[in-house]
Write a sequence for this structure.
């Protein structure tokens, strides 16, 4: 039996993790969950699974939930302190960080310090705090199991191999809903069109990131920190069928790829069951019906955000935080109809261009910088 804490249980990855636990109640126990604004679902999950703790960010929601869950004997906690508390509980084995955005950084660091196994679904954590996380991991018995499908694939392709014999990591990208479109065809695309991902069922923010290829930029930086591979040795290949989730090329010319059905439940279950493998909750890949698989070069002209990832990653220091915060704010503005699709890349480019990099990273600096970048973005569009 593994005891699980889910940060962000009402989001896309969170609800898929809940489905897995529902299917395998004899293998996993939900000890704590957290949510942001969807408190109706959070309440339902709490009543169904009876975790010991529920954490919620907002004061008002805390009061409502506390009232409703009191009779069930469930403790309701509030704010970032609540998130930290449930991620460090003695009884927790695995913390799934499926919270969206860089708010995941603080509780993730707390969980690492407490020696928990981290099932990492929050890529922003490594993008902005990779250096800090690495330093914390060295001091702790904690380890990270990637839940991002590409990184789970790479992790699986590296099992039992000597990391020194890696030639390069090959991250696959679906290309998103606008693959093959020229820049002029992207001028008037709407949030609704951008959210419709051809292959993956994901949350809103990550779907927009897939449409701009910023998601892949974040994943390049994530891969750099997770696998200790230089940016020069990370290649992105567009693979529209999303059957191969990523590959590792070794010095002898062998490429090892990981395939499975296109479903986030696979990498979540892999992280929960590691180092074992248990029967799949999503079923098995039907290769003959899938037919062919193809590969193409990413279109850097229509989708410059991928290049920003390499630039920010290589510069390092505070630059990835600036790229990420500018992107988070720009995506919000796009989803709320305040800016056009192509303005997202403009805002990120401008934010990175005007930033003076600081190489002395602390958690406080990262949090302050994020707020400052978001404010600047809002000034920029006025
Ligand atoms: Mn991914």
């Amino acid at each position: 039996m593994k005891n699980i804490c889910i940060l962000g249980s009402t989001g896309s990855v969170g609800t898929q993790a809940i489905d897995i636990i529902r299917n395998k109640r004899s293998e996993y126990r939900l000890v704590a969950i957290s949510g942001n604004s969807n408190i109706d679902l959070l309440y339902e999950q709490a009543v169904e699974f009876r975790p010991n703790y529920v954490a919620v960010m907002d004061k008002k929601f805390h009061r409502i939930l506390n009232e409703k869950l009191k009779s069930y004997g469930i403790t309701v906690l509030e704010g970032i302190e609540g998130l930290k508390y449930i991620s460090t509980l003695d009884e927790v084995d695995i913390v799934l960080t499926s919270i969206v955005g860089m708010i995941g950084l603080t509780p993730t660091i707390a969980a690492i310090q407490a020696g928990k196994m981290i099932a990492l679904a929050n890529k922003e954590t490594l993008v902005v705090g990779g250096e800090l996380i690495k330093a914390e991991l060295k001091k702790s018995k904690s380890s990270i199991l990637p839940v991002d499908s590409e990184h789970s694939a790479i992790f699986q392709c590296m099992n039992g191999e000597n990391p020194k014999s890696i030639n390069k990591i090959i991250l696959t990208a679906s290309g998103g809903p606008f693959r093959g479109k020229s820049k002029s065809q992207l001028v008037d695309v709407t949030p609704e069109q951008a959210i419709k991902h051809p292959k993956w069922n994901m949350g809103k923010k990550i779907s927009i990131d897939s449409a701009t290829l910023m998601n892949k930029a974040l994943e390049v930086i994530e891969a750099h920190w997770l696998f200790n591979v230089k940016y020069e040795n990370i290649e992105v290949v567009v693979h529209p069928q999303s059957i191969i989730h990523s590959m590792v090329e070794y010095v002898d010319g062998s490429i090892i790829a990981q395939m499975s059905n296109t479903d986030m439940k696979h990498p979540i279950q892999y992280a929960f069951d590691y180092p074992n493998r248990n029967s799949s909750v999503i079923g098995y890949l039907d290769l003959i019906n899938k037919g062919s698989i193809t590969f193409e070069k990413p279109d850097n002209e229509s989708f410059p955000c991928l290049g920003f990832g390499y630039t920010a990653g290589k510069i390092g220091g505070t630059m990835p935080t600036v790229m990420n915060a500018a992107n988070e704010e720009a995506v919000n503005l796009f989803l709320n109809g305040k800016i056009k699709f192509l303005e997202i890349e403009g805002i990120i480019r401008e934010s990175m261009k005007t930033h003076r990099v600081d190489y002395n990273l602390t958690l406080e600096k990262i949090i302050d910088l994020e707020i400052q970048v978001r404010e600047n973005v809002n000034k920029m569009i006025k």
About this structure: The chain has two domains: 2-146, 161-261+291-315. The chain has a mean pLDDT of 96.
